[in-house]
Amino acid sequence: MRLASRASILSIVACASSLALGLVPMPAAAQTPACTAPANASRLDHPLRRVAQRIAAKQPITIVAIGSSSTAGAGASSSSASYPSRLEVELKERFAHLTVKVLNRGIGGEEVAEMLARFDKSVLAEQPDLVVWQLGTNTLIRHHRIRPMAPLLTEGVERIKDSGADIVLMDPQFAPKVIAEPNTERMVDLIEAAAKAENISVFHRFQVMRHWREVRELPFETFLSPDGLHMNDWGYACVAKLLAAAIDDAATRATAVAGARPRL
Length: 264
Known about the structure:
Helices cover 52% and strands 10% of the residues. It has 264 residues and is α/β, with parallel strands linked by helices. α3 (49-56) packs across α14. It is globular and about 45 Å long. The chain starts with a helix and ends in a 6-residue tail after the last helix. It has a single domain (35-257), classed as 3-Layer(aba) Sandwich (Rossmann fold), CATH 3.40.50.
């Protein structure tokens, strides 16, 4: 017993010494994944002419983000970690000499009809230069019919266009509670078809997040909150970073078409 105890003590001392000297390898710290996505998923198809004009004139830019809970920031650690808040940070870094404001007009649980009902007050009253409209998820997870949404979507797009603002649609998130629904692909296709008919862009959030999971093989918990539906801080931050880059690129293309580049 004494010999065994003495051996155990010596073993513990040796291990402690090795750790102190750095001789025993320690587990590598978990690394934050790089925020990347294929260009065809994150790029906006159409130039943002209104935003480009504001940049060229060195005037303030107002963006309204309207949507449901994933715009409001459900799953984030704080309101400052929502995608609209992070988008403002990213755009201010890109356009350091401009005043950029991103207004979060997300309300959890809303569908397109409810968003339209508050367009005048929540969106148009702010006289936005760009509207990012996130939609489709709640219709899916509540098993509501998809087809009746199409004319409402067209109405909303036309009202935004009439105000003179640019518009970008954002489709549903690639998350277990969304992809479990049988009509998810149809919803993504409906939003894409509406955008093509109106000559506006879609930020393909569904495709971006699908790439994270299926191509990069990131676990869902890397970019989603534990509820299996909403994004977490990393997910929101990465979406905002990719969207900011897409807005910058689309505005640059618009000024190139007009024959001038914005001076920053």
